[in-house]
Design goal:
Layout lengths: L2 H8 L2 E3 L2 E4 L6 E4 L2 E3 L6 H12 L2 H5 L15 H4 L2 H9 L3 H5 L9 H12 L3
Antiparallel strand pairs: 1-4, 2-3
Helix pairs in contact: 2-7, 5-7
Length: 123
């Protein structure tokens, strides 16, 4: 999706609200008003989600980090860990994590930041 398309998607859409009576009839026309807002996803979060899938994190932690029998849920890690601490854990997992089968995440710094940003926003 281009930036222009994203901007258009994020704009507020309005449906007119008017009530009027046609002079020549007893029909009352009514239009309801509703404001619809859409949000553009943060591109860093989108990139982090793609990395979560391409690195097969979802294989153990589940889609959206909800957890599985193989690995704990990652929801709430944004509250538990700072961005730098989470990135350090991803790069060098602790003994509990490696004992569960997690390998160190080897990514470029920008990609590691994107993955961390995605994980920190999971609820």
């Amino acid at each position: 999706m281009s930036n222009l398309e994203q901007t258009r998607a994020a704009q507020e859409v309005f449906i007119c609200e008017t009530c009027f009576k046609d002079r020549n009839s007893s029909i009352v026309w009514a239009w309801k008003s509703k404001e619809v807002k859409t949000e553009i996803p943060d591109p860093i979060v989108v990139k982090g989600h793609a990395l979560f899938q391409s690195q097969s994190c979802n294989s153990c932690h589940g889609e959206g980090g909800i957890g599985t029998a193989a690995a704990v849920a990652l929801t709430g890690v944004g509250v538990k860990y700072s961005e730098s601490h989470l990135e350090a854990l991803l790069h060098a997992p602790n003994s509990k994590m490696t004992g569960g089968g997690m390998q160190p995440v080897v990514l470029k710094p920008q990609d590691l930041e994107a993955l961390s940003t995605y994980l920190r926003q999971l609820h």
